[in-house]
Amino acid sequence: LHRGEELAMFVDVGTNAEVVLGNRDWLVACAGAAGPALEGGILACGTRARPGAVERVDIDPDTLELTYRTIGGGPPVGICGSGVIDLLAAMFLAGLVEPTGKLVPERDPRRMRRIGGEWAYVLADEAAGGAGTPVYISQSDVKNLIRSKGAMYTILNVVVQSVGVGFEDIRRFYVAGAFGSYIDPARAVAIGMLPDVPLDRFQGLGNAAGEGAVAALRRRSARAEVEELRERITYLEMNVRGDFMSQLTGALFLPHTDLKRFPSVAARLQGR
């Protein structure tokens, strides 16, 4: 990113979002809290990426047939971060969740169930669950996810606006993080977590922070490059910016209150 001529954005996705925007001429960075829901934390059936964790989900918008894949292929024991994003996107595109985040129980009475006093969408019942308990996403889970994805999108948008460019001007989006690199960009766009740009602009980097730390420990040249970059980066303090809170409100919907920001999602909804 810092060596190229084209404008690029680096996003480390997780409980906190670390963002860098720029090219070889200038760099702007910020960090902000997106919330643990994106990594499966605090969700009723959230789990880390481990055997049995649901990592991919699809729902046919016409038949509502559910298919999912778990890590290792065994019975489901929970839902990890990439699975959570897949699930919310699939439910939204299938009409199981309203743009406000409200579940629509009458849309699929077979899988909608009252659990803990609220509606939930059940992926696997007690018989199918690997731990003998149902695997589901609750109404509260959906609300938490929307808050987290809304914060993520707003952080990216504030950074972009702070330098007077648009998402369409960014030629490459590098998505990093042990969890972030497993995100399906199309699903993240569908819920309004990542910007609606051509999908070939997204590139997963894996655990870039860990690899960078190893490189800095092993090579003096890498440490010198880090020091040089630190002097070049302009840091934006997100928690003191009034525009963050004002923009966050619009992002607390699926995918956003302004559908013009997400034309590909709007087109899919019209064809539903």
From TrEMBL:
InterPro entries: Corrinoid_activation_enz, RACo_C. Keywords: ATP-binding, Nucleotide-binding. One of its GO terms (molecular function) is ATP binding. It comes from Dissulfurirhabdus thermomarina. PANTHER family: IRON-SULFUR CLUSTER PROTEIN, IRON-SULFUR CLUSTER-BINDING PROTEIN-RELATED. It holds the Pfam family RACo_C_ter. The lineage of its organism: Bacteria, Deltaproteobacteria, Dissulfurirhabdaceae, Dissulfurirhabdus. Residues 6-265 form the RACo C-terminal domain. This is ATP-binding protein.
